[in-house]
Amino acid sequence: RKEVEQDPGPFNVPEGATVAFNCTYSNSASQSFFWYRQDCRKEPKLLMSVYSSGNEDGRFTAQLNRASQYISLLIRDSKLSDSATYLCVVNFPYNQGGKLIFGQGTELSVKP
Amino acid sequence: DVKVTQSSRYLVKRTGEKVFLECVQDMDHENMFWYRQDPGLGLRLIYFSYDVKMKEKGDIPEGYSVSREKKERFSLILESASTNQTSMYLCASSPIKTGQKNIQYFGAGTRLSVL
After folding, report:
1. Does A87 contact chain B (CB < 8 Å)?
2. Which one is predicted more confidently, B98 or B80?
3. Which of A3, A67, B49, B87 is the most exposed place for a label (fewest CB within 10 A)?
4. How near does any CA of chain B get to the CA of A36, in Å?
5. Phi then psi for A94, rounded to 5 degrees?
6. Strands B87-94, B110-114: parallel, antiparallel or unpaired by DSSP?
7. Closest CA to A40 of B61, B59, B84, B88
8. Do A104 and B41 make contact, defined as CB atoms within 8 angstroms?
9. How far apart are CA B47 and CA B29, in angstroms?
10. B2 in the Ramachandran plot: left (φ > 0), alpha (ψ -120 to 50) or beta?
11. Does residue A40 sit in helix, strand or coil?
C-alpha cells in the first residue's frame, strides 16, 4: 500500500463546477496534513494546511478524518485558473524521519 | 516572502560527468530537502538536512550525495551522472517554528537531462 494515495486523475470539469479530491494515508501517527498545488512545469506551492476540525479558505474546503486516515479537498465554483495538479501531503513524525510524503497528485482541468 | 533559489533551470550533462545542483534559501530555515519528480512517480525524497554539516538519506539516495556547509545552502551532487538520473530536481526548505514546521517551500526546479 502506498503511504499516501490520491484519486487518479485527470478530472475534467466545466467552469463553475464543484469538484472533490480524496486522499488516504497509511501512517496513523501522522500529525500534519497539507494540500499543495503544482502548475505545469512549476514547483509545488502550499495551497492550505488541513486542520482536525476542517478549514475553509475562500472556495476551498479541506477536511480531515483521522479515524479513517482520509483527507479531502473541495473546490467550489471552479475557475479556469484552478487548473493544476493537486498534491496531498502528509508528514511522518520526527521519530520516523520527520519527512513529508507526497501523493502522486490529481490533475484538474477546468474548461470554459 | 520565502525565497528558495536553484542555480539552474535547465542542465544538460553527459553520462559519467560529475554534476552539482545548488540550492540557496534566504529565510534562515533549519531544514532543507532534495527531491526528484518523475511522471507517474510523484516527488521522491533523495536527501535532507536538519542542520549545517548534517545529512540524512531519503528514500532514493543511491547515486547521490549532498553537502551542507552553510545553513542557507544545500548542494546535491551526482558523482557520475547516468541516464536514469534525467529528471526534475526540486529543492525545498522548512522552518522548525511551532505552527509553521513541516511547511516546505520549493525552488523553481532544475530540469536535468543526462545524455
Report:
1. yes
2. B80
3. A67
4. 10
5. -60, -30
6. antiparallel
7. B88
8. yes
9. 16
10. beta
11. coil
pLDDT over threshold 90, residue A29: no
AA letter at A100:
L
Contact A55, A48 (CB under 8 A): yes
Nearest residue, CB atoms, B90 vs list A43, A103, A104: A43
Q: Which residues on chain B are in Cβ contact (under 8 Å) with A105? A: 42
Residue holding cell 534562515?
Answer: B28
Report how many Cβ contacts below 8 Å link chain A to chain B: 40
Give the separation between CA B101 and CA B54, rounded to whole angstroms.
18
Q: Is the Cβ of B98 closer than 8 Å to some Cβ of chain A?
A: no
* Interface contact B46, partner A, CB < 8 A: no
Q: What is the pLDDT of residues B5-14, one digit of tens each?
A: 999 999 999 9
Q: How far is B72 from chain A (nearest CA, A)?
A: 19
Q: Are A108 and A14 in contact (CB under 8 A)?
A: no
- Distance in angstroms (rounded) separating the CA atoms of residues A44 and B47: 18
Give the position of cell 560527468: B17
